[in-house]
């Protein structure tokens, strides 16, 4: 089987990381994988051991040239099917390129933002199968009119191995700017691991912080990620006098070394397909406070590996954070439960098997086999 994957992301965020997991897993199954991605993106280097990489410009939703450029790759590769992993123009332009070449198309939907029914009808008619990475996204797609026969659910996954080594105190000291040999931390540390974009809800944690600081004056908050909200967030942090407690850390490849050091991961998103950072936190044994939206309740079981609060509800967010900061034993139990949940329901092997089942079903033209990973 030869599969051409298309991913337009520049950094190794959640979606691109899933593509990397999938390529490695498919290589172990003997699948001949090819990857079309942006020149200079992280995947160009990281995917090379598992797939033949084809770097092509991808300018976004209005870049009609993707059809022509990807069409050339399809003609060269001659894949059995094309798997579109990214929006950024690839969900539509990539499907048009594959359709023109007469190649079956699979599209993975990773976000839960609603779409008008007319748009969903026009877009998803281009795809032979649509894979939702959570039941939450599947509900959104069905509500938009996607035919149930096209829809499959294959959850995102995480490899827990990099997070299993515990806290790297030297790495944490570097993150916090501590002097060599000095204390790495003076109080509890909260992490937000998400792109710096509006829907990730960083502003709600900043709204909650004065009340949190009144109860826990030495708390520190680290925002890991990049995005267009970096400037506005830093301006607000400075304006509100929070610079001693909140830092923008940017995108860091050493996250597996420092995430286990966190006392709590907070994810106050208003929209979220599933939340790979939630799986990473659970793999690291870190309890979570997150919004009850989209696919988040599949990754965070309320009272088990974290707490769920209504989106944009600052008092509820504040209370949940303080409850966990004040209860070290509860945090430890939730951290252990998170590790168990990831191992049981979000394994990379299960995700790879689920995608491979969709490929085989589509190419065979048969009804889907009964599987916990694909429906």
TrEMBL record:
SUPFAM superfamilies reported for this sequence: UDP-Glycosyltransferase/glycogen phosphorylase
PANTHER family xref list: GLYCOSYLTRANSFERASE
Disulfide bond found in the keyword field: no
The organism of origin for this protein: Thiohalocapsa halophila
Gene Ontology molecular function terms on file: transferase activity
Residue runs in coiled coils: none
UniProt KW Chloroplast keyword: no
Name of the protein in its database record: Glycosyl transferase
Glycosyltransferase subfamily 4-like N-terminal domain sequence ranges: 14-160
Keywords for this protein: Transferase
